[in-house]
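Hi, here's the filled form for the chain we discussed.

Project: internal
Contact: R.S.
Residues: 215
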Amino acid sequence: RLSISNVRIAGMSACVPANIEENLTLPIFSDEQEARKVIASTGIERHRFVDEDVTASDLSVKAVTKLLDDLGWNADEIDCLYYVCTSRDYIAPQTACILQDRLGLRNDCFVIDLPLGCSGWIYGMSVASSMMSNATFKKGLLIAAETNTQNRSRQDRTVRPLFGDAATVTALEFANNVTPMNFMFGVDGSGYQAVWAKHGGMRHPADVDSVIDVE
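And the returned structure, exactly as it came back:
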């Protein structure tokens, strides 16, 4: 358990693509009955997806730009940026470094990628608030973004009905006498293959066969 004081959420913003895909009509299901069973078990009826030339960082820039404008914050006031994403722009460098430049943040701004999935926002909040709680950093941004529709096969029945594309940004600010943030953590990595992207890492490098979308 972790308890963090002196940090508050100043605001939130999101960016989602216009394209919508309905799970009920996905061609990967044998019939409508099968689709309805998946919807009933997951609670997911539809999801958004980006155009081929749009990345998670592109969505993030739009979300951050809007939030800074809404809050009246200037980019040069941001002391730290945490980018939670598994569908990063490149294996290297960190996408957070690229966002520092695109957003016009200071060169001495602390930036870091946190390559986490479903639990990413919670873990990101714990890391960001921990680092900000002693007032070294006054204002920070936590981005959680994904474009998983770009790195999974369109025929993958395991993940296509689940994953969509979007970006959110949470503005954090050092503040005295605010309600503490409390975190509890847990992990079970035994079922990792249920949502893995098998190829592209060092265990299974990408090859020609791995990028063929089999019908």
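Let me know if anything looks off before we file it.
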